[in-house]
Design a protein that fits this description.
The strands form eight sheets. Strands 1, 2, 4, 5, 8, 11, 13, 14 and 15 form a nine-stranded mixed β-sheet that branches. A five-stranded mixed β-sheet has the order 17-18-19-21-20. By secondary structure, the protein is α+β, with helices and mostly antiparallel strands. It folds into three domains: about 190 residues, Sandwich (Immunoglobulin-like); about 190 residues, Neutral Protease, domain 2, CATH 1.10.390; about 100 residues, Pdz3 Domain. α2 packs parallel to α4, α7 crosses α11 and α12 crosses α13. A hairpin with a 5-residue loop joins β25 and β26. Helices cover about 30% and strands about 25% of the residues. The N and C termini lie far apart (about 65 Å). It contains 19 helices and 32 strands. The chain is globular, with a radius of gyration of 26 Å. The structure holds zinc ion.
Length: about 600
Protein backbone atom coordinates (compact mmCIF):
# COMPACT_ATOMS: atom_id res chain seq x y z
CA UNK A 1 0.00 0.00 0.00
CA UNK A 2 1.23 3.47 -0.86
CA UNK A 3 1.67 5.87 2.04
CA UNK A 4 -1.18 8.39 2.21
CA UNK A 5 -0.71 12.02 1.22
CA UNK A 6 -2.26 14.15 3.97
CA UNK A 7 -5.30 16.13 2.79
CA UNK A 8 -5.05 19.91 3.22
CA UNK A 9 -6.60 21.31 6.40
CA UNK A 10 -7.32 24.88 7.38
CA UNK A 11 -4.79 24.85 10.24
CA UNK A 12 -2.17 27.37 11.34
CA UNK A 13 1.38 26.79 10.12
CA UNK A 14 4.20 27.74 12.51
CA UNK A 15 7.01 29.83 11.10
CA UNK A 16 7.52 30.48 7.42
CA UNK A 17 9.24 29.04 4.37
CA UNK A 18 12.39 30.85 3.24
CA UNK A 19 12.67 30.61 -0.54
CA UNK A 20 15.78 31.72 -2.44
CA UNK A 21 15.72 31.57 -6.22
CA UNK A 22 18.82 32.16 -8.29
CA UNK A 23 17.81 33.10 -11.84
CA UNK A 24 21.20 34.35 -12.99
CA UNK A 25 22.06 31.43 -15.27
CA UNK A 26 20.44 32.71 -18.46
CA UNK A 27 22.97 30.79 -20.58
CA UNK A 28 21.58 27.41 -19.44
CA UNK A 29 18.13 28.77 -18.51
CA UNK A 30 18.22 27.14 -15.09
CA UNK A 31 16.47 28.32 -11.93
CA UNK A 32 18.43 27.21 -8.83
CA UNK A 33 16.41 26.98 -5.64
CA UNK A 34 17.27 26.78 -1.95
CA UNK A 35 14.52 26.76 0.59
CA UNK A 36 13.99 26.05 4.25
CA UNK A 37 10.79 24.72 5.76
CA UNK A 38 10.15 24.89 9.51
CA UNK A 39 9.31 21.43 10.88
CA UNK A 40 5.81 21.20 12.34
CA UNK A 41 6.26 17.69 13.79
CA UNK A 42 8.64 14.77 13.38
CA UNK A 43 7.82 11.53 11.57
CA UNK A 44 6.22 10.95 8.18
CA UNK A 45 5.89 14.05 6.01
CA UNK A 46 5.04 14.71 2.36
CA UNK A 47 6.43 17.56 0.29
CA UNK A 48 4.45 18.57 -2.79
CA UNK A 49 5.61 20.14 -6.03
CA UNK A 50 2.64 22.13 -7.47
CA UNK A 51 0.74 20.44 -10.29
CA UNK A 52 -2.49 22.43 -10.89
CA UNK A 53 -2.17 25.97 -12.20
CA UNK A 54 -4.89 28.59 -11.76
CA UNK A 55 -4.23 30.26 -15.12
CA UNK A 56 -4.83 27.07 -17.11
CA UNK A 57 -7.41 25.60 -14.66
CA UNK A 58 -5.52 22.39 -15.26
CA UNK A 59 -2.72 20.04 -14.20
CA UNK A 60 -0.32 21.75 -16.59
CA UNK A 61 2.76 21.84 -14.39
CA UNK A 62 5.03 18.92 -15.13
CA UNK A 63 7.33 17.54 -12.45
CA UNK A 64 10.02 16.32 -14.90
CA UNK A 65 11.75 19.77 -14.95
CA UNK A 66 12.37 19.46 -11.19
CA UNK A 67 15.87 18.00 -10.69
CA UNK A 68 18.69 17.84 -8.20
CA UNK A 69 16.48 17.51 -5.12
CA UNK A 70 18.51 17.13 -1.93
CA UNK A 71 16.98 17.47 1.53
CA UNK A 72 18.73 18.01 4.86
CA UNK A 73 17.19 18.14 8.36
CA UNK A 74 19.29 20.22 10.75
CA UNK A 75 22.37 19.40 8.67
CA UNK A 76 21.74 15.67 8.22
CA UNK A 77 20.89 14.40 4.77
CA UNK A 78 17.46 12.75 4.51
CA UNK A 79 16.35 10.14 2.03
CA UNK A 80 13.21 11.01 0.07
CA UNK A 81 10.95 8.68 -1.86
CA UNK A 82 8.80 9.81 -4.76
CA UNK A 83 5.18 8.68 -4.59
CA UNK A 84 4.66 5.98 -7.24
CA UNK A 85 1.16 7.17 -8.11
CA UNK A 86 1.49 10.93 -7.66
CA UNK A 87 5.01 11.81 -8.81
CA UNK A 88 4.63 15.43 -7.61
CA UNK A 89 4.72 14.10 -4.00
CA UNK A 90 7.90 13.27 -2.06
CA UNK A 91 7.75 11.20 1.14
CA UNK A 92 10.30 11.83 3.90
CA UNK A 93 10.68 10.91 7.55
CA UNK A 94 11.64 13.85 9.75
CA UNK A 95 13.91 12.80 12.64
CA UNK A 96 12.79 13.55 16.19
CA UNK A 97 14.00 16.94 17.37
CA UNK A 98 14.71 18.34 13.88
CA UNK A 99 13.63 21.98 13.59
CA UNK A 100 14.19 22.85 9.96
CA UNK A 101 14.37 21.20 6.56
CA UNK A 102 16.80 22.59 4.02
CA UNK A 103 16.05 21.81 0.37
CA UNK A 104 17.94 22.44 -2.79
CA UNK A 105 16.82 21.68 -6.33
CA UNK A 106 16.68 23.16 -9.82
CA UNK A 107 13.85 23.96 -12.19
CA UNK A 108 14.96 23.10 -15.74
CA UNK A 109 12.34 24.46 -18.17
CA UNK A 110 11.67 21.98 -20.99
CA UNK A 111 13.32 22.95 -24.28
CA UNK A 112 10.01 22.47 -26.11
CA UNK A 113 7.79 24.24 -23.54
CA UNK A 114 7.17 27.95 -23.10
CA UNK A 115 10.43 29.77 -22.52
CA UNK A 116 10.86 31.54 -19.19
CA UNK A 117 14.32 33.00 -19.74
CA UNK A 118 16.34 34.74 -22.40
CA UNK A 119 19.60 36.61 -21.99
CA UNK A 120 17.58 39.82 -21.73
CA UNK A 121 14.42 38.83 -19.88
CA UNK A 122 12.94 36.32 -17.45
CA UNK A 123 9.53 35.31 -16.16
CA UNK A 124 9.34 33.68 -12.74
CA UNK A 125 6.14 31.79 -11.93
CA UNK A 126 6.75 30.90 -8.27
CA UNK A 127 4.84 27.61 -8.49
CA UNK A 128 7.73 26.23 -10.55
CA UNK A 129 10.33 26.88 -7.86
CA UNK A 130 8.73 25.83 -4.58
CA UNK A 131 7.96 22.66 -2.63
CA UNK A 132 5.47 22.83 0.23
CA UNK A 133 4.26 20.48 2.96
CA UNK A 134 1.05 18.52 2.37
CA UNK A 135 -1.58 18.89 5.09
CA UNK A 136 -2.26 22.64 5.11
CA UNK A 137 -4.38 25.11 3.19
CA UNK A 138 -1.71 27.07 1.37
CA UNK A 139 -3.16 30.40 2.50
CA UNK A 140 -1.87 29.43 5.98
CA UNK A 141 1.71 28.82 4.83
CA UNK A 142 3.88 31.94 4.98
CA UNK A 143 6.73 32.39 2.53
CA UNK A 144 9.55 34.91 2.47
CA UNK A 145 11.01 34.88 -1.03
CA UNK A 146 14.25 36.23 -2.48
CA UNK A 147 15.38 36.48 -6.07
CA UNK A 148 18.85 36.88 -7.58
CA UNK A 149 18.78 38.23 -11.15
CA UNK A 150 21.37 38.70 -13.89
CA UNK A 151 23.52 41.83 -13.94
CA UNK A 152 21.61 44.84 -15.25
CA UNK A 153 18.11 43.40 -14.83
CA UNK A 154 15.23 45.35 -13.32
CA UNK A 155 12.09 43.66 -12.02
CA UNK A 156 8.36 44.15 -11.51
CA UNK A 157 5.81 42.16 -9.52
CA UNK A 158 2.80 42.81 -7.32
CA UNK A 159 4.76 41.44 -4.33
CA UNK A 160 5.91 44.05 -1.85
CA UNK A 161 9.67 44.59 -1.76
CA UNK A 162 11.42 44.46 1.63
CA UNK A 163 14.91 45.20 0.35
CA UNK A 164 16.46 45.54 -3.08
CA UNK A 165 20.09 45.95 -4.02
CA UNK A 166 21.76 45.50 -7.40
CA UNK A 167 20.45 42.27 -8.96
CA UNK A 168 18.99 40.97 -5.69
CA UNK A 169 15.61 41.47 -4.08
CA UNK A 170 13.99 40.29 -0.83
CA UNK A 171 10.22 40.36 -0.80
CA UNK A 172 7.99 40.94 2.20
CA UNK A 173 6.36 37.75 3.51
CA UNK A 174 3.24 36.55 1.70
CA UNK A 175 1.22 33.38 2.07
CA UNK A 176 1.81 30.68 -0.54
CA UNK A 177 -1.55 31.32 -2.24
CA UNK A 178 -0.58 34.98 -2.70
CA UNK A 179 2.98 34.14 -3.77
CA UNK A 180 2.00 31.87 -6.65
CA UNK A 181 -0.48 34.56 -7.72
CA UNK A 182 2.32 37.13 -7.97
CA UNK A 183 4.88 36.22 -10.65
CA UNK A 184 7.97 38.32 -11.28
CA UNK A 185 8.98 39.73 -14.66
CA UNK A 186 12.53 41.00 -14.98
CA UNK A 187 14.74 42.18 -17.79
CA UNK A 188 17.41 44.40 -19.18
CA UNK A 189 15.04 46.61 -21.22
CA UNK A 190 12.34 47.89 -18.92
CA UNK A 191 9.96 50.78 -18.61
CA UNK A 192 7.32 51.53 -15.99
CA UNK A 193 4.33 53.72 -16.81
CA UNK A 194 1.77 54.90 -14.24
CA UNK A 195 -1.70 54.27 -15.67
CA UNK A 196 -3.87 55.31 -12.76
CA UNK A 197 -3.33 56.80 -9.33
CA UNK A 198 -5.09 53.91 -7.52
CA UNK A 199 -2.32 52.77 -8.48
CA UNK A 200 -2.32 50.75 -11.67
CA UNK A 201 1.06 50.38 -13.36
CA UNK A 202 2.18 49.16 -16.74
CA UNK A 203 5.55 47.35 -16.60
CA UNK A 204 6.97 46.58 -20.03
CA UNK A 205 9.95 44.37 -20.76
CA UNK A 206 11.29 44.12 -24.31
CA UNK A 207 13.77 42.11 -26.33
CA UNK A 208 15.43 45.46 -26.99
CA UNK A 209 14.99 49.17 -26.32
CA UNK A 210 12.95 49.78 -29.50
CA UNK A 211 10.31 47.27 -28.37
CA UNK A 212 9.46 49.60 -25.46
CA UNK A 213 8.48 52.60 -27.61
CA UNK A 214 4.70 52.32 -27.16
CA UNK A 215 2.77 55.07 -28.98
CA UNK A 216 1.43 57.77 -26.65
CA UNK A 217 -2.13 57.33 -28.00
CA UNK A 218 -2.02 53.68 -27.00
CA UNK A 219 -0.80 54.48 -23.49
CA UNK A 220 -3.61 57.04 -23.20
CA UNK A 221 -6.12 54.26 -24.01
CA UNK A 222 -4.53 51.94 -21.41
CA UNK A 223 -4.98 54.76 -18.89
CA UNK A 224 -8.70 55.05 -19.57
CA UNK A 225 -8.94 51.25 -19.31
CA UNK A 226 -7.22 51.32 -15.91
CA UNK A 227 -9.78 53.85 -14.68
CA UNK A 228 -12.89 52.41 -16.34
CA UNK A 229 -12.73 48.78 -15.15
CA UNK A 230 -12.79 49.55 -11.39
CA UNK A 231 -15.68 51.93 -12.12
CA UNK A 232 -17.55 49.19 -13.96
CA UNK A 233 -17.19 46.78 -11.03
CA UNK A 234 -17.55 49.54 -8.39
CA UNK A 235 -14.62 48.10 -6.47
CA UNK A 236 -11.01 47.05 -6.68
CA UNK A 237 -9.37 44.12 -5.00
CA UNK A 238 -5.70 45.05 -5.13
CA UNK A 239 -3.35 47.21 -3.12
CA UNK A 240 -1.85 48.17 -6.47
CA UNK A 241 -2.21 46.49 -9.83
CA UNK A 242 0.72 45.64 -12.10
CA UNK A 243 0.41 44.84 -15.79
CA UNK A 244 3.49 42.67 -16.47
CA UNK A 245 4.03 42.80 -20.19
CA UNK A 246 6.68 41.13 -22.32
CA UNK A 247 7.27 42.42 -25.84
CA UNK A 248 9.33 39.57 -27.14
CA UNK A 249 9.86 37.15 -29.97
CA UNK A 250 11.97 34.91 -27.73
CA UNK A 251 9.63 34.43 -24.77
CA UNK A 252 6.04 33.24 -25.37
CA UNK A 253 3.86 35.74 -27.21
CA UNK A 254 0.17 36.15 -27.75
CA UNK A 255 -1.20 35.14 -24.39
CA UNK A 256 -2.08 36.26 -20.91
CA UNK A 257 -2.29 34.85 -17.41
CA UNK A 258 -4.59 36.32 -14.79
CA UNK A 259 -3.81 37.19 -11.19
CA UNK A 260 -5.53 39.25 -8.51
CA UNK A 261 -2.99 42.07 -8.24
CA UNK A 262 -1.20 41.70 -11.55
CA UNK A 263 -1.50 40.12 -14.95
CA UNK A 264 0.90 38.65 -17.46
CA UNK A 265 0.51 39.90 -21.03
CA UNK A 266 2.83 38.54 -23.67
CA UNK A 267 2.95 40.14 -27.12
CA UNK A 268 5.47 40.24 -29.95
CA UNK A 269 8.61 42.42 -29.98
CA UNK A 270 7.02 44.52 -32.74
CA UNK A 271 3.78 45.21 -30.81
CA UNK A 272 4.61 48.89 -30.29
CA UNK A 273 4.80 49.37 -34.06
CA UNK A 274 2.10 46.96 -35.24
CA UNK A 275 -1.33 48.58 -35.17
CA UNK A 276 -2.95 45.31 -36.29
CA UNK A 277 -1.55 43.40 -33.32
CA UNK A 278 -2.67 46.23 -31.03
CA UNK A 279 -6.25 45.86 -32.30
CA UNK A 280 -6.12 42.05 -32.07
CA UNK A 281 -4.69 42.18 -28.55
CA UNK A 282 -7.02 44.94 -27.30
CA UNK A 283 -9.36 42.43 -25.70
CA UNK A 284 -6.47 40.57 -24.07
CA UNK A 285 -5.45 43.53 -21.92
CA UNK A 286 -9.02 44.20 -20.86
CA UNK A 287 -9.74 40.48 -20.37
CA UNK A 288 -6.82 39.83 -18.04
CA UNK A 289 -7.47 42.96 -15.96
CA UNK A 290 -11.16 42.02 -15.60
CA UNK A 291 -10.06 38.63 -14.25
CA UNK A 292 -8.89 40.39 -11.08
CA UNK A 293 -12.63 40.62 -10.30
CA UNK A 294 -14.13 37.72 -12.25
CA UNK A 295 -11.86 34.76 -11.62
CA UNK A 296 -9.37 35.73 -8.96
CA UNK A 297 -11.33 37.62 -6.30
CA UNK A 298 -14.63 35.93 -7.08
CA UNK A 299 -13.92 32.31 -8.00
CA UNK A 300 -16.23 29.51 -9.08
CA UNK A 301 -16.70 27.34 -5.99
CA UNK A 302 -15.61 24.11 -7.69
CA UNK A 303 -12.59 25.74 -9.32
CA UNK A 304 -11.12 27.01 -6.04
CA UNK A 305 -8.85 24.51 -4.29
CA UNK A 306 -7.10 24.76 -0.90
CA UNK A 307 -3.72 23.75 -2.33
CA UNK A 308 -1.96 23.38 -5.68
CA UNK A 309 -2.24 19.60 -6.05
CA UNK A 310 -5.97 18.96 -5.83
CA UNK A 311 -8.08 18.79 -9.02
CA UNK A 312 -9.94 21.90 -10.14
CA UNK A 313 -13.36 21.61 -11.73
CA UNK A 314 -14.44 24.08 -14.38
CA UNK A 315 -18.24 23.75 -14.54
CA UNK A 316 -18.55 27.56 -14.40
CA UNK A 317 -15.83 28.44 -16.92
CA UNK A 318 -18.58 29.85 -19.15
CA UNK A 319 -18.88 32.52 -16.41
CA UNK A 320 -15.18 32.74 -15.56
CA UNK A 321 -13.95 32.99 -19.16
CA UNK A 322 -17.12 33.65 -21.18
CA UNK A 323 -18.31 36.61 -19.14
CA UNK A 324 -14.78 37.99 -18.80
CA UNK A 325 -14.43 38.00 -22.59
CA UNK A 326 -17.90 39.57 -22.89
CA UNK A 327 -16.73 42.43 -20.66
CA UNK A 328 -13.47 42.64 -22.63
CA UNK A 329 -15.50 43.34 -25.80
CA UNK A 330 -17.49 46.02 -23.98
CA UNK A 331 -14.55 47.72 -22.26
CA UNK A 332 -12.17 47.66 -25.22
CA UNK A 333 -14.85 49.34 -27.36
CA UNK A 334 -15.92 51.89 -24.76
CA UNK A 335 -12.32 52.90 -24.03
CA UNK A 336 -11.38 53.13 -27.70
CA UNK A 337 -8.92 50.23 -27.88
CA UNK A 338 -11.17 49.13 -30.73
CA UNK A 339 -13.61 51.09 -32.84
CA UNK A 340 -17.30 50.15 -32.75
CA UNK A 341 -16.94 48.72 -36.27
CA UNK A 342 -13.93 46.61 -35.28
CA UNK A 343 -15.90 45.22 -32.32
CA UNK A 344 -18.94 44.41 -34.44
CA UNK A 345 -16.64 42.67 -36.92
CA UNK A 346 -14.93 40.78 -34.08
CA UNK A 347 -18.32 39.66 -32.74
CA UNK A 348 -19.22 38.55 -36.27
CA UNK A 349 -16.12 36.32 -36.28
CA UNK A 350 -17.14 34.77 -32.92
CA UNK A 351 -20.75 34.36 -34.07
CA UNK A 352 -19.65 32.74 -37.31
CA UNK A 353 -17.22 30.39 -35.58
CA UNK A 354 -19.89 29.25 -33.13
CA UNK A 355 -22.55 28.97 -35.85
CA UNK A 356 -20.27 26.57 -37.67
CA UNK A 357 -19.76 24.08 -34.87
CA UNK A 358 -21.18 20.73 -36.01
CA UNK A 359 -19.68 19.27 -32.82
CA UNK A 360 -22.52 20.82 -30.84
CA UNK A 361 -24.62 17.86 -32.07
CA UNK A 362 -22.67 15.57 -29.73
CA UNK A 363 -20.89 17.90 -27.33
CA UNK A 364 -22.69 20.55 -25.27
CA UNK A 365 -21.26 23.86 -24.09
CA UNK A 366 -21.39 22.44 -20.55
CA UNK A 367 -19.20 19.51 -21.61
CA UNK A 368 -16.64 21.88 -23.10
CA UNK A 369 -16.03 23.32 -19.61
CA UNK A 370 -14.23 20.07 -18.73
CA UNK A 371 -11.84 20.49 -21.69
CA UNK A 372 -9.16 22.24 -19.63
CA UNK A 373 -8.76 19.09 -17.54
CA UNK A 374 -8.21 16.52 -20.28
CA UNK A 375 -7.41 18.28 -23.57
CA UNK A 376 -3.84 19.40 -24.03
CA UNK A 377 -3.34 23.15 -24.23
CA UNK A 378 -2.52 22.98 -27.92
CA UNK A 379 -4.48 22.78 -31.17
CA UNK A 380 -6.81 19.85 -31.82
CA UNK A 381 -7.17 18.41 -35.32
CA UNK A 382 -10.88 19.07 -35.72
CA UNK A 383 -11.67 22.14 -33.63
CA UNK A 384 -15.24 22.55 -34.92
CA UNK A 385 -16.05 18.89 -34.20
CA UNK A 386 -14.06 18.45 -30.97
CA UNK A 387 -14.95 22.05 -30.01
CA UNK A 388 -12.22 22.63 -27.46
CA UNK A 389 -12.81 25.49 -25.00
CA UNK A 390 -15.86 26.90 -26.77
CA UNK A 391 -16.88 28.46 -23.44
CA UNK A 392 -14.94 31.57 -24.53
CA UNK A 393 -16.69 32.52 -27.77
CA UNK A 394 -20.02 30.82 -27.07
CA UNK A 395 -19.86 32.33 -23.57
CA UNK A 396 -19.56 35.79 -25.13
CA UNK A 397 -22.72 35.22 -27.20
CA UNK A 398 -24.53 33.85 -24.14
CA UNK A 399 -23.69 36.83 -21.91
CA UNK A 400 -24.52 39.19 -24.75
CA UNK A 401 -27.98 37.66 -24.76
CA UNK A 402 -28.27 37.92 -20.96
CA UNK A 403 -27.49 41.63 -21.25
CA UNK A 404 -30.05 42.13 -24.02
CA UNK A 405 -32.64 40.10 -22.13
CA UNK A 406 -32.11 42.18 -18.96
CA UNK A 407 -32.70 45.31 -21.05
CA UNK A 408 -35.81 43.77 -22.59
CA UNK A 409 -37.24 42.60 -19.25
CA UNK A 410 -36.65 45.98 -17.59
CA UNK A 411 -37.69 48.22 -20.48
CA UNK A 412 -34.10 49.32 -20.93
CA UNK A 413 -33.46 50.26 -17.27
CA UNK A 414 -31.26 47.29 -16.31
CA UNK A 415 -28.33 45.52 -17.93
CA UNK A 416 -25.23 43.47 -17.17
CA UNK A 417 -23.73 46.67 -15.72
CA UNK A 418 -26.08 46.17 -12.76
CA UNK A 419 -24.98 42.54 -12.44
CA UNK A 420 -21.31 43.62 -12.47
CA UNK A 421 -21.80 46.15 -9.69
CA UNK A 422 -23.67 43.69 -7.43
CA UNK A 423 -21.76 40.50 -8.17
CA UNK A 424 -18.21 41.81 -8.27
CA UNK A 425 -18.52 44.98 -6.21
CA UNK A 426 -20.21 43.57 -3.11
CA UNK A 427 -17.02 43.19 -1.07
CA UNK A 428 -15.64 46.69 -1.51
CA UNK A 429 -11.90 46.88 -1.89
CA UNK A 430 -10.91 43.72 -0.02
CA UNK A 431 -8.53 41.06 -1.26
CA UNK A 432 -10.55 38.26 0.32
CA UNK A 433 -11.33 35.51 -2.17
CA UNK A 434 -15.01 34.57 -2.25
CA UNK A 435 -16.51 31.72 -4.23
CA UNK A 436 -19.76 31.53 -6.19
CA UNK A 437 -22.05 28.80 -7.48
CA UNK A 438 -24.47 28.46 -10.40
CA UNK A 439 -27.29 29.36 -7.97
CA UNK A 440 -25.50 32.54 -6.87
CA UNK A 441 -25.33 33.68 -10.50
CA UNK A 442 -29.04 32.99 -11.03
CA UNK A 443 -30.05 34.66 -7.74
CA UNK A 444 -28.12 37.83 -8.54
CA UNK A 445 -29.70 38.05 -11.99
CA UNK A 446 -33.11 37.44 -10.46
CA UNK A 447 -32.63 40.43 -8.16
CA UNK A 448 -31.99 42.58 -11.21
CA UNK A 449 -34.79 41.21 -13.36
CA UNK A 450 -37.00 38.31 -12.18
CA UNK A 451 -36.84 35.42 -14.65
CA UNK A 452 -36.32 31.66 -14.63
CA UNK A 453 -32.58 32.06 -15.10
CA UNK A 454 -31.71 28.49 -14.03
CA UNK A 455 -33.81 27.02 -16.83
CA UNK A 456 -32.57 29.68 -19.23
CA UNK A 457 -28.92 28.75 -18.63
CA UNK A 458 -29.48 24.99 -18.52
CA UNK A 459 -31.21 25.06 -21.91
CA UNK A 460 -28.26 26.86 -23.45
CA UNK A 461 -25.53 24.93 -21.63
CA UNK A 462 -27.00 21.60 -22.68
CA UNK A 463 -28.20 22.54 -26.20
CA UNK A 464 -27.36 20.23 -29.10
CA UNK A 465 -28.41 22.70 -31.78
CA UNK A 466 -27.88 26.42 -32.32
CA UNK A 467 -31.45 27.62 -31.85
CA UNK A 468 -30.45 30.02 -28.99
CA UNK A 469 -27.00 30.87 -30.23
CA UNK A 470 -27.61 34.21 -31.94
CA UNK A 471 -30.49 35.41 -29.73
CA UNK A 472 -28.30 38.11 -28.18
CA UNK A 473 -27.43 39.58 -31.57
CA UNK A 474 -31.06 39.45 -32.63
CA UNK A 475 -32.30 41.12 -29.42
CA UNK A 476 -29.50 43.66 -29.94
CA UNK A 477 -30.84 44.50 -33.42
CA UNK A 478 -28.33 42.58 -35.55
CA UNK A 479 -28.08 39.44 -37.65
CA UNK A 480 -25.11 37.46 -38.91
CA UNK A 481 -24.64 37.59 -42.68
CA UNK A 482 -21.91 36.52 -45.08
CA UNK A 483 -20.44 38.69 -47.83
CA UNK A 484 -17.85 37.93 -50.49
CA UNK A 485 -15.34 40.46 -49.14
CA UNK A 486 -13.66 40.26 -45.72
CA UNK A 487 -13.93 43.03 -43.12
CA UNK A 488 -10.67 44.74 -42.15
CA UNK A 489 -10.90 42.93 -38.80
CA UNK A 490 -11.30 39.58 -40.55
CA UNK A 491 -8.06 40.22 -42.41
CA UNK A 492 -6.32 40.78 -39.05
CA UNK A 493 -7.90 37.56 -37.78
CA UNK A 494 -6.44 35.75 -40.80
CA UNK A 495 -2.99 37.21 -40.10
CA UNK A 496 -3.34 35.96 -36.53
CA UNK A 497 -4.35 32.49 -37.75
CA UNK A 498 -1.39 32.52 -40.11
CA UNK A 499 -3.54 31.56 -43.07
CA UNK A 500 -6.37 32.30 -45.46
CA UNK A 501 -9.59 31.44 -43.67
CA UNK A 502 -12.10 29.78 -46.01
CA UNK A 503 -13.61 27.65 -43.23
CA UNK A 504 -17.18 28.85 -43.82
CA UNK A 505 -17.02 28.36 -47.59
CA UNK A 506 -14.80 25.61 -48.98
CA UNK A 507 -14.00 24.49 -45.42
CA UNK A 508 -10.27 25.18 -45.28
CA UNK A 509 -7.69 27.33 -43.58
CA UNK A 510 -4.71 27.51 -45.92
CA UNK A 511 -1.31 28.53 -44.56
CA UNK A 512 1.92 29.33 -46.38
CA UNK A 513 2.52 27.66 -49.76
CA UNK A 514 -0.83 25.89 -49.79
CA UNK A 515 -0.32 24.04 -46.49
CA UNK A 516 -3.66 22.95 -45.03
CA UNK A 517 -3.87 24.25 -41.46
CA UNK A 518 -7.42 23.08 -40.76
CA UNK A 519 -10.38 21.45 -42.46
CA UNK A 520 -13.97 22.05 -41.39
CA UNK A 521 -15.80 18.87 -40.43
CA UNK A 522 -17.84 17.46 -43.33
CA UNK A 523 -17.26 20.62 -45.36
CA UNK A 524 -16.93 20.45 -49.18
CA UNK A 525 -13.13 20.16 -48.81
CA UNK A 526 -13.52 17.42 -46.18
CA UNK A 527 -15.83 15.44 -48.46
CA UNK A 528 -13.28 15.76 -51.27
CA UNK A 529 -10.74 13.93 -49.11
CA UNK A 530 -8.58 16.89 -48.11
CA UNK A 531 -7.19 16.57 -44.60
CA UNK A 532 -4.95 18.35 -42.15
CA UNK A 533 -1.31 18.22 -43.24
CA UNK A 534 -2.10 18.09 -46.97
CA UNK A 535 -0.73 20.76 -49.33
CA UNK A 536 -2.57 22.36 -52.23
CA UNK A 537 -0.38 22.33 -55.34
CA UNK A 538 -2.65 23.40 -58.20
CA UNK A 539 -5.97 25.09 -58.95
CA UNK A 540 -7.51 24.12 -62.31
CA UNK A 541 -4.07 22.99 -63.49
CA UNK A 542 -2.30 26.25 -62.52
CA UNK A 543 0.35 26.29 -59.76
CA UNK A 544 -1.37 27.08 -56.46
CA UNK A 545 -1.70 30.63 -55.11
CA UNK A 546 -4.20 31.97 -52.54
CA UNK A 547 -5.60 34.43 -55.09
CA UNK A 548 -6.11 31.69 -57.67
CA UNK A 549 -8.12 29.64 -55.19
CA UNK A 550 -10.30 32.62 -54.27
CA UNK A 551 -10.84 33.35 -57.95
CA UNK A 552 -11.84 29.72 -58.54
CA UNK A 553 -14.47 29.96 -55.77
CA UNK A 554 -15.94 33.11 -57.34
CA UNK A 555 -16.00 31.57 -60.84
CA UNK A 556 -17.56 28.28 -59.70
CA UNK A 557 -20.44 30.24 -58.12
CA UNK A 558 -21.25 31.56 -61.62
CA UNK A 559 -20.31 28.63 -63.86
CA UNK A 560 -21.64 25.90 -61.51
CA UNK A 561 -18.63 23.82 -62.57
CA UNK A 562 -16.82 21.93 -59.77
CA UNK A 563 -13.56 23.39 -58.45
CA UNK A 564 -10.53 21.35 -59.62
CA UNK A 565 -7.76 21.10 -57.03
CA UNK A 566 -4.55 19.08 -56.85
CA UNK A 567 -3.08 18.36 -53.45
CA UNK A 568 -0.27 16.35 -51.94
CA UNK A 569 -0.96 14.07 -49.01
CA UNK A 570 0.78 11.00 -47.58
CA UNK A 571 3.47 11.15 -50.27
CA UNK A 572 1.11 11.14 -53.28
CA UNK A 573 -0.58 13.75 -55.43
CA UNK A 574 -4.37 13.61 -55.51
CA UNK A 575 -7.01 15.29 -57.66
CA UNK A 576 -10.23 16.67 -56.25
CA UNK A 577 -13.29 17.99 -58.02
CA UNK A 578 -15.37 19.91 -55.49
CA UNK A 579 -19.00 20.77 -56.28
CA UNK A 580 -19.08 23.92 -54.15
CA UNK A 581 -20.91 26.92 -55.66
CA UNK A 582 -21.35 29.24 -52.66
CA UNK A 583 -18.48 31.66 -53.55
CA UNK A 584 -16.46 33.36 -50.81
CA UNK A 585 -18.24 33.88 -47.48
CA UNK A 586 -17.01 36.29 -44.83
CA UNK A 587 -18.98 37.02 -41.65
CA UNK A 588 -20.41 40.45 -40.83
CA UNK A 589 -23.14 41.81 -38.62
CA UNK A 590 -26.03 43.61 -40.29
CA UNK A 591 -28.64 45.82 -38.62
CA UNK A 592 -32.14 44.37 -38.62
CA UNK A 593 -34.20 47.26 -40.05
CA UNK A 594 -36.72 48.87 -37.75
CA UNK A 595 -35.23 47.50 -34.51
CA UNK A 596 -33.64 49.35 -31.62
CA UNK A 597 -29.82 49.28 -31.73
CA UNK A 598 -29.36 47.78 -28.26
CA UNK A 599 -25.93 46.40 -29.14
CA UNK A 600 -24.69 49.94 -29.62
CA UNK A 601 -26.25 50.91 -26.27
CA UNK A 602 -24.04 48.25 -24.71
CA UNK A 603 -20.82 48.71 -26.68
CA UNK A 604 -20.76 52.44 -27.20
CA UNK A 605 -23.35 54.44 -25.25
CA UNK A 606 -23.43 58.18 -25.93
CA UNK A 607 -21.44 58.97 -22.76
CA UNK A 608 -18.44 56.85 -23.82
CA UNK A 609 -15.04 58.19 -24.72
CA UNK A 610 -15.02 57.38 -28.47
ZN1 LIG B 1 -9.28 34.31 -19.23
Amino acid sequence: MAQPIPAPRDLPFQGQIQLKVDATDTAHKIFRVRQTIPVQKSGAMVLLYPEWETGSHSATQQVAPLAGLIIHADGRRLDWRRDEVQPHAFHITVPAGARELALEFQHLPAATGPKLMSRDMLILPWQKVVLYPAGWFIHNIGVQAELAMPEGFQFATSLETAQASANHVSFKPANLEELVDAPVYAGRYYKRIELDATPVRLNIFGDNAAALELPLELIAKFKTLATAVPQLFRSRHYRHFDFLMSLSDVLPSGGGVEHQESTEINVSANYAHDVGEQVLMANLLAHEFIHSWNGRTRQPADLWTPNLNLPMRGSLLWVYEGQTEFWAHVISTRQGLRSLQQSLDALAVDASLMSNRPGRAWKSLQDSTIDAVYMPAKPVNWRDWQRREDYYAEGVLLWLDVDMLLRELSSGRKSMLDFAAVFFGAEQNTRTISTYTFDDVCKTLNRIAPYDWATYFKQRLQAHDDRYLLDGLKRGGYRLIYTDAPSAYFTLHEADLGGMDLSTSLGLVVGKKGAIKSVAWESPAFKAGISLGARLVAVAGQPYTDDLLKQALREAAVSKQPIALSFEADGDTHEASIPYFGSLRYPRLERIPGTHDRLRDLLLPASSTQ
